[in-house]
From TrEMBL:
Gene3D superfamilies: 3.40.50.2300, Histidine kinase-like ATPase, C-terminal domain. Keywords: Phosphoprotein. SUPFAM superfamilies: ATPase domain of HSP90 chaperone/DNA topoisomerase II/histidine kinase, CheY-like. PROSITE patterns: RESPONSE_REGULATORY (PS50110). GO terms for biological process: phosphorelay signal transduction system. It holds the Pfam family Response_reg. This is Response regulator. It comes from Microvenator marinus. InterPro entries: Bact_response_regulator, CheY-like_superfamily, HATPase_C_sf, HATPase_dom, Sig_transdc_resp-reg_receiver. It comes from the Bacteria.
Length: 364
């Protein structure tokens, strides 16, 4: 996974050098003594965090961070200040423009902790933005389908009226040309009704879960993030789903992230990923099982009921993922096992799929 970009602005080069040495192993660190340069970078590069000294020449750190917020709203802002200007810095935080305050001097561990929190806040904001886009896409798809259905009904009524006119015209009150014209219109109306009846919103397009899950699992194996954790993938489902590809990707990545975190320090850590058809739910199921410690039911339930804060952000991610899935008729669940925990994501089939075609055992 690519390192998060951190932008640091201070008029003291030695401060910049020290911060870059402290943070450079975990993040891509950009440093500058010029506020104008920082603003130019913000317009061209996505930064997770910007850190600025309060006292800058020509422009204060507070003003710089306010401008940064206008340019890049999701970049989290951290303010550096000496003890003498602490009150002014606190005022800046109270105004809502600053996420955290770092005093000079701050110990390297304290700096790393604040930056880690800021990066996590940035990721949570980006996750929320993606969720809102998914929800908006779902709403637009539903509105689109409702409009299509309404048009279909209206056109059906019009076609019926034309049919009645044609029937009444059988007594010769209309010329043959008029009748032919009406038949042409009737045919076009019926064809339009048929097309509208088959219209699908963008959120309900076919998604091949097998290829999406397989690709994401392969990327995790190649990323180096698994360390000594063994990972296996099995697919017994090759059908299509009616949820966006991005939601399937979000699900497998969220589950694997949680599994990796749960297995830190475990003996012979293993993760099994399986995609199959769940007969009980009549949906496709993505199951990610790890052999880490068990999770009490009250903990797993809370993860889905509210955006629980955690050091890794896993609680928030699961809550948001479950919220998105609900818009498409899916859901998340957990299963406690004697040797670990399974995370499950149930995903609705595409309308063209026949659930009776899947007769695979669900034992994992």
């Amino acid at each position: 996974m690519a390192k998060a970009n951190i932008l640091i602005v201070d008029d003291e080069p030695r401060v910049l050098e020290g911060l870059k040495m402290n943070l450079g192993r975990e993040y891509e660190v950009f440093t500058t003594t010029e506020a104008d340069q920082a603003l130019r970078w913000l317009k061209k590069t996505r930064f997770a965090v910007i850190i600025s000294d309060l006292k800058m020449p020509r422009i204060s750190g507070v003003e710089l961070l306010n401008q940064a917020r206008e340019i890049s709203p999701f970049t989290v802002r951290v303010l550096l200040t000496g003890f003498a200007s602490l009150n002014a810095a606190l005022d800046a935080i109270n105004l809502g423009g600053v996420f955290k305050l770092l005093t000079k001097p701050s110990s390297p561990p304290e700096v790393r902790q604040v930056v880690a929190q800021a990066v996590q806040a940035h990721q949570s904001a980006m996750d929320q933005e993606r969720v809102e886009k998914h929800l908006d896409l779902a709403r637009r798809a539903q509105e689109f389908e409702a409009i299509a259905l309404g048009m279909s009904k209206e056109l059906s009524g019009m076609a019926l009226q034309f049919s009645a006119v044609l029937y009444a015209a059988a007594d010769g009150q209309l010329s043959q040309d008029d009748i032919e014209d009406l038949r042409w219109v009737e045919d076009r109306l019926h064809a339009t009704v048929d097309r509208l009846a088959k219209v699908e919103g963008p959120a309900l397009s076919k998604v091949k879960a097998e290829s999406v899950v397989g690709l994401q699992t392969e990327l995790w194996e190649r990323s180096g993030r698994l360390g000594s954790i063994g990972l296996s993938y099995k697919s017994d489902f090759s059908g299509a789903l009616s949820i966006p590809t991005s939601v399937v990707e979000q699900g497998i990545n969220c589950f694997l992230e949680n599994a990796v975190n749960a297995l830190q320090g475990a003996d012979s850590p293993r993760i099994k990923v399986r995609l199959y058809f769940c007969h009980f739910m009549e949906m496709a199921c993505l199951e990610v099982k790890n052999n880490g410690p068990a999770m009490p039911s009250y903990v797993t339930n809370k993860l889905l009921e509210s955006p629980v804060k955690s050091a890794t952000g896993s609680g928030e991610s699961l809550y948001l993922l479950n919220k998105v899935l609900g818009q498409f008729g899916g859901k998340i669940g957990f299963r406690q096992r004697s040797n670990g925990v399974s995370f499950m994501m149930w995903m609705p089939l595409h309308a063209s799929e026949n659930s009776s075609a899947y007769m695979v055992t669900e034992q994992f």
